């Protein structure tokens, strides 16, 4: 809920009205549980304005050249290939594919499963690198997320219900009903699998009830491959008021990482891989809280890892956003996205194993203002430097990571949406990363 935008215009009104509206603004901030976040926003803004981050060299480092900028006129997306001289030097280009994936996951035998913009209720598969797709199952409601396990078992979320198929989508059974019809788990971030094949889901959704949020911050876990589930409510008991952003097993830290939203935006770690419903001071006894104060940042909606480090992306729409890096889960390096990207949350990250090593792709996005640019970016040195791959205006376009990093060797896919006046007028184009750039250049 953007409680601030309706108050900005009153700054030009007489002072008595300003005082009244500022007071109402603060009441709204308190009512939706964002007072801590507002204080952090102010602190980060001051640090940015008085150059504290500049002198401390605390900004994300970008390479000098911009790869590709999507123009608002739309003519920059007329071809089948997205590339540039700089991207070619980096070995990067994107090839348009006929299948308009919204979400897609790849099995170990290179089959893609996913849903498409043309029919969000339908599940498709492709075994020819997205040259075509076959409809295999249609749900009664749109697919909101999906996940594939290490054993190629498929999980699909639709209308607050999680379905399971272990026969390549020949049949589905209901295995879990979440606490609301609009609930789901965030694609690529809200469901994970542990080394012993325990499955975990973090519930996500936003429901305003009268004067408060409905609390959906439930963690679900299954020890039998997803047939039956238990529920943990330790976040509710700890005072979290909204939902779970991220739950992921981290190979480097050999631990589960969890982030919550919205009033606290905390970061949790569970190194025991057990005691899933217990808030504990010791990491070996359950969930251990990493960040003590909100201004330390938290509430990350994205995470990816390499052999050297774990990276997180922050979720502060309209404020200051960060990419946070740790190698041990104890010390965290916090880097600010520089303007004009600073106000765009890092919504998703995927890890991709290429001939260049482990790449991390990150997508930032803000729809509040055309001045706050959004960005698809990539790093192949664990976040020491980033290439700006595609820059765009989030009020006119959206660039999403359409694939997950559950299988890091799979090909990354991105979707580019050009907004129309109505939902059914939006134009969606999907591209896959094409390493055969010499052929494209010819």
Write down the Rg: 21 Å
Strand order of the largest sheet: 1-29-28-27-26
Give the distance, in angstroms, between the N- and C-terminal Cα atoms: 48 Å
Strand content: 35-45%
Share of residues in helices: 10-25%
Shape: globular
The overall average pLDDT, rounded, is 90
Number of strands: 32
- Figure out the total of helices: 6
Low-pLDDT windows of residues: 1-12, 438-442
- The assigned structural class equals mainly beta
The major β-sheet equals: 5 strands, mixed
Describe this structure in words.
The chain has helices at residues 15-31, 35-49, 52-55, 85-89, 234-238, 437-441; strands at residues 62-69, 81-82, 94-96, 101-106, 112-116, 119-126, 134-138, 143-148, 154-158, 161-165, 173-177, 191-193, 199-202, 208-209, 212-213, 219-222, 230-232, 243-250, 255-261, 267-270, 288-289, 302-305, 310-313, 322-326, 332-336, 346-354, 357-364, 374-379, 386-392, 397-401, 413-418, 427-433. It has six helices and 32 strands. The protein starts with 14 loop residues before the first helix and ends with a helix. It has 442 residues and is mainly beta.
List keywords for this structure.
32 strands, five-stranded mixed beta sheet, mainly beta, 442 residues, 6 helices, disordered N terminus, disordered C terminus
Brief sketch in words of this structure:
The protein is mainly β and 442 residues long. The strands form eight sheets. A five-stranded mixed sheet has the order 1-29-28-27-26. Strands 2-3-32-31-30 form a five-stranded antiparallel sheet, with no helix packed on it. A four-stranded antiparallel sheet has the order 4-5-6-7, with no helix packed on it.
């Amino acid at each position: 809920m953007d409680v601030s935008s309706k108050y900005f215009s009153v700054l030009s009104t007489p002072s008595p009205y300003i005082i009244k509206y500022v007071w109402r603004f603060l009441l709204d901030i308190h009512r939706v549980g964002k007072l801590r976040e507002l204080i952090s926003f102010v602190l980060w803004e001051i640090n940015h304005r008085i150059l504290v981050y500049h002198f401390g060299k605390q900004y994300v480092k970008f390479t000098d050249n911009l790869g590709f900028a999507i123009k608002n006129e739309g003519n920059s997306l007329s071809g089948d290939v997205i590339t540039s001289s700089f991207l070619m030097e980096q070995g990067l280009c994107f090839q348009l594919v006929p299948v308009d994936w919204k979400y897609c996951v790849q099995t170990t035998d290179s089959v893609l499963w996913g849903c498409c913009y043309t029919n969000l209720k339908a599940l498709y598969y492709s075994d020819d690198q997205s040259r075509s797709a076959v409809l295999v199952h249609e749900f009664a409601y749109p697919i909101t997320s999906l996940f594939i396990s290490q054993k190629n078992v498929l999980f699909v979320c639709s209308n607050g219900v999680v379905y399971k198929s272990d026969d390549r989508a020949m049949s589905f059974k209901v295995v879990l009903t979440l606490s609301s019809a609009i609930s789901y788990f965030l694609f690529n971030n809200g469901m994970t699998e542990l080394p012993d094949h325990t499955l975990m889901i973090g519930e996500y959704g936003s429901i305003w009830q009268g004067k408060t949020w409905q609390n959906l911050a439930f963690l679900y876990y299954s020890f039998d491959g997803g047939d039956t589930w238990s529920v943990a409510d330790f976040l509710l008991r700890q005072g979290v008021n909204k939902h779970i952003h991220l739950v992921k097993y981290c190979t480097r830290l050999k631990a589960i990482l969890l982030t919550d939203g919205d009033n606290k935006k905390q970061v949790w770690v569970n190194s025991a891989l057990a005691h899933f419903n217990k808030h504990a001071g010791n990491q070996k006894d359950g969930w251990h809280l990493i960040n003590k104060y909100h201004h330390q940042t938290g509430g990350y909606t994205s995470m990816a890892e390499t052999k050297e480090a774990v990276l997180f992306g922050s979720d502060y729409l309209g404020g200051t956003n960060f990419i946070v890096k740790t190698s041990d889960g104890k010390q965290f390096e916090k880097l600010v996205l520089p303007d004009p990207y600073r106000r765009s949350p890092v919504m998703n990250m995927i890890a991709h194993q290429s001939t260049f090593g482990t790449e991390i792709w990150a997508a930032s996005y803000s729809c509040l203002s055309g001045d706050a640019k959004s960005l698809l970016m990539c790093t192949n040195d664990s976040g020491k430097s980033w290439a700006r791959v595609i820059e765009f205006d989030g009020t006119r376009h959206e660039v999403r990571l359409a694939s997950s990093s559950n299988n890091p060797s799979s090909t990354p896919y991105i979707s580019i949406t050009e907004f129309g006046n109505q939902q059914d007028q939006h134009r969606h184009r999907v591209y896959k990363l094409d390493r055969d750039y010499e052929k494209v250049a010819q």
